[in-house]
Design a protein that fits this description.
Elements lengths: L17 H23 L1 H4 L5 H13 L3 H24 L4 H29 L7 H8 L3 H7 L9 H20 L2 H25 L3 H5 L7 H13 L8 H21 L9 H22 L8 H4 L1 H8 L1 H18 L7 H37 L9
Helix pairs in contact: 1-3, 1-4, 1-15, 1-16, 1-17, 3-12, 4-8, 4-11, 4-13, 5-6, 5-8, 5-17, 6-7, 7-8, 9-11, 9-13, 11-13, 12-13, 16-17
Length: 385
């Protein structure tokens, strides 16, 4: 790892890659597919599909879980890159300003939805969010309550936001105090810690959520994102279109293989599968990011196009609201798992309802805080509003 230097990084220049917004939407879409296809049972019952196709659909559904890992990789890469640019240009990090930026970005929607989910639990018997769960979410340890005291709630997706907030609390101090080499060592140690704790938990408590939602086991994606930022040194990878295509295909194939063969979300998963499956998924998500970063070819043009860029911009809202909308869609389509047309209608109705709600949330709830963040607390310009 090279010595500290500003290199190509500059705090005076905007660092924004629109293709990463497009990729962010696909990270949400992966989670959405898992929450819809997975609930339909298509991957297990096959609904008269040929066995090979049913198995493929099942692997795609399971691999949708790794959309969260892609979110982690993206967030960690961007946060680490922006912190390094600020440190390189200013000679130091303003950690207080960083915390305020994260608060203005995450908290308005997060706390609004926690309150909404709790209100629903008072009105609907199917929602079981208790004051203990609310307190855990307010303290950003909702991921721990998710597996210590699981409940049915539309606030379920917030577990990953809690975990990211824990990362945001610690990581700026790591970047502020360590040189590049030792930051890389720290990220590598995070991956080792994740694998070791995953094995120990699986041996002691063989329940998938204890590993898949744990703060100490799900940091490998965060580590991969940080390592990418450190390794690229502020540069955009100069990869040919063919190499990008190969990297993307290999990364997706690896995710599907891990989803199909490792059984990470099944009871009785083996220790070797746990120790290797999660790191492989994180590395594959890093490969997906690397294949898209700096792409300029016509095949990847949609990633940089206005539609996907906008959907990526509101992806936080898409991720937060989609379980609520799917609950409404399930009311209108109670037999969504009975047939493929019903399942497709359920998926389409949920997505059609989630997008306008997320867009409205972005416009009237999130954007005023984002503008305040940009105008008063931003040190390195990034994504425009």
């Amino acid at each position: 790892m090279p010595r500290d230097s500003t290199g190509p990084r500059s705090a005076g220049q905007r660092f924004y890659r629109p293709e990463l917004d497009g990729l962010r939407f696909f990270a949400f879409l992966a989670v959405y597919v898992e929450h819809t296809l997975g609930s339909s049972g298509l991957g297990t019952t096959h609904h008269r599909l040929p066995n090979w196709l049913g198995e493929l659909v099942g692997a795609i559904s399971t691999a949708g879980n790794f959309g969260v890992d892609l979110f982690f990789v993206l967030s960690s890469y961007l946060i680490t890159e922006l912190l390094l640019r600020e440190r390189g240009a200013r000679g130091r990090l303003d950690v207080k300003a960083f915390y305020i930026r994260r608060m203005l970005r995450i908290w308005p929607l997060y706390f609004f939805f926690v309150a909404l989910a709790y209100g629903l639990s008072l009105a609907l018997a199917s929602e079981a969010l208790t004051w203990k769960h609310v307190l855990a979410y307010l303290l950003f340890v909702g991921n721990w309550m998710y597996f210590l005291a699981p409940v049915t709630t539309v606030a379920g997706p917030l577990w990953s936001v809690s975990l990211e907030e824990q990362f945001y609390l610690i990581w700026p101090w790591v970047v502020r105090r360590l040189d590049l080499r030792h930051i890389a060592y720290c990220a590598g140690a995070m991956m080792v810690l994740a694998a070791v704790v995953s094995v120990l938990l699986t041996a002691l408590q063989p329940q998938a959520d204890w590993v898949s939602k744990n703060s100490f086991t799900r940091i490998d994606g965060i580590a991969v994102g940080a390592l990418l930022a450190l390794g690229l040194q502020g540069r955009i990878p100069a990869l040919s279109a063919a190499l990008r295509a190969v990297l993307l295909a290999a990364s997706i194939a690896l995710l599907l293989w891990v989803a199909y063969a490792f059984g990470l979300f099944q009871p009785g998963v083996g220790l070797l599968a746990v120790a290797t499956g999660w790191p492989l998924a994180a590395v594959a998500c890093g490969g997906v990011l690397l294949s898209a970063l700096g792409s300029s070819g016509r095949w990847t043009a949609p990633l940089r196009g206005p539609v996907l860029v906008y959907l990526g911009r509101i992806s936080y809202g898409l991720y937060v609201y989609h379980e609520l909308v799917l609950k409404v869609a399930a009311y209108w389509l109670p037999q969504q798992g009975a047939s493929i047309p019903q399942m497709l209608a359920y998926m389409g109705l949920g997505l059609a309802g989630t997008i306008p709600i997320a867009a409205a949330s972005y416009r009237w709830l999130e954007l005023p805080f984002l503008r305040l963040k940009r105008e008063r607390f931003t040190m390195v310009l990034s994504r425009p509003d």
